[in-house]
User: Which sequence fits this backbone?
């Protein structure tokens, strides 16, 4: 009897000790989990703090200062002007959060920049205006906006025809990168002659010259910063200036590591006569042309060409250190002359 009671007591003691051990173990595990969680949180906060500090340091080149000056289109704009500085800063920081977009445009500038700068210089215009085409179309020669504007300069049909760019059932010359850029440069030259001020000229490119003239007269101001225009126009003008600031100062250090696209191949404008429906790829094959090169120069041409006369950018190649024009054996060419349609 006594032995049975002792055995029962021993079992109770053992069970009690096991229960106490489990409680102590659970307590230790909870404390370990809490310590580990606090350690992870501390490490996470430390990483966030380091990332935040790195981003602040990385963002320093994007910060504008009142004692600095921005050069745009050969004109110095002192950043001591608070309104100008704040609006330009907003535009610069807008692009700060678009790294991938800027990488893409920097690469595409390699393709189109030489051609655009050549067209600007031919009209006596400053090369900073090349960033208008970056802002307008993202350097996509075939893009069409919601307002039906098309090409690198984003011309609407009426403006295109004012500058002898044909838009018809056969082709849309707004998508001809070379000819449309030349037309846009002529337009910019005219706008500058109206205002003698590049921000106002850019505003009129976006908002319309008559609208800008009317607002200047109504408001009795002469400076773009003082002019009340739609927000879209303010963003447009300052983002072009911001792109010039970002790329010209290379504040992203892109030149040291990011390769640009090759420039557009050399070409000459001519007419091409098509007598029967022809696939563009077959035309290139029949004339020993590289299809990708020809399409790059002539994105305004459809994949299948209907009978008619087409303006084309005829590629030129360098052979044996001499310029040699590619000879179209099957397609007759006549000298290219622009004419309104």
Assistant:
């Amino acid at each position: 009897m006594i032995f049975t009671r002792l055995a029962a007591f021993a079992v109770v003691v053992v069970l009690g000790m096991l229960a106490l051990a489990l409680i102590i173990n659970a307590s230790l595990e909870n404390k370990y989990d809490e310590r580990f969680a606090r350690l992870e949180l501390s490490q996470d906060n430390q990483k966030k703090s380091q990332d935040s500090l790195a981003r602040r340091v990385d963002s320093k080149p994007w910060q504008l200062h009142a004692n600095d000056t921005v050069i745009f289109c050969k004109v110095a704009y002192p950043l001591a002007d608070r309104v100008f500085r704040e609006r330009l800063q907003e535009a610069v920081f807008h692009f700060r959060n678009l790294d991938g977009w800027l990488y893409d445009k920097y690469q595409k500038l390699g393709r189109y920049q030489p051609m655009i700068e050549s067209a600007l210089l031919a009209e006596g215009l400053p090369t900073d205006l090349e960033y208008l085409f970056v802002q307008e179309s993202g350097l996509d020669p075939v893009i069409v906006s919601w307002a039906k504007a098309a090409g690198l300069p984003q011309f609407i049909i009426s403006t295109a025809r004012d500058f002898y760019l044909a838009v018809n059932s056969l082709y849309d010359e707004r998508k001809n990168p070379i000819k449309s850029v030349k037309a846009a440069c002529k337009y910019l030259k005219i706008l500058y002659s109206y205002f003698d001020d590049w921000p106002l000229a850019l505003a009129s490119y976006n908002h319309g010259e008559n609208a800008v003239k009317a607002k200047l007269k109504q408001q009795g101001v002469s400076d773009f910063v003082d002019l009340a225009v739609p927000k879209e126009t303010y963003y447009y003008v300052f983002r072009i200036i911001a792109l010039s600031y970002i790329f010209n100062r290379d504040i992203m250090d892109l030149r040291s590591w990011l390769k640009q696209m090759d420039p557009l191949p050399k070409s000459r404008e001519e007419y091409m006569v098509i007598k029967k429906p022809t696939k563009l790829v077959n035309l290139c094959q029949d004339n020993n042309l590289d299809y990708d090169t020809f399409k790059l120069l002539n994105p305004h041409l459809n994949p299948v060409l209907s009978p008619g006369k087409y303006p084309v950018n005829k590629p030129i190649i360098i052979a044996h250190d001499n310029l040699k024009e590619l000879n179209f054996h099957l397609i007759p060419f006549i000298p290219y002359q622009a004419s309104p349609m």
In short: Strands lie at 69-72, 75-78, 267-274, 278-279, 304-305, 308-319, 322-325, 333-335. The chain has a mean pLDDT of 86.
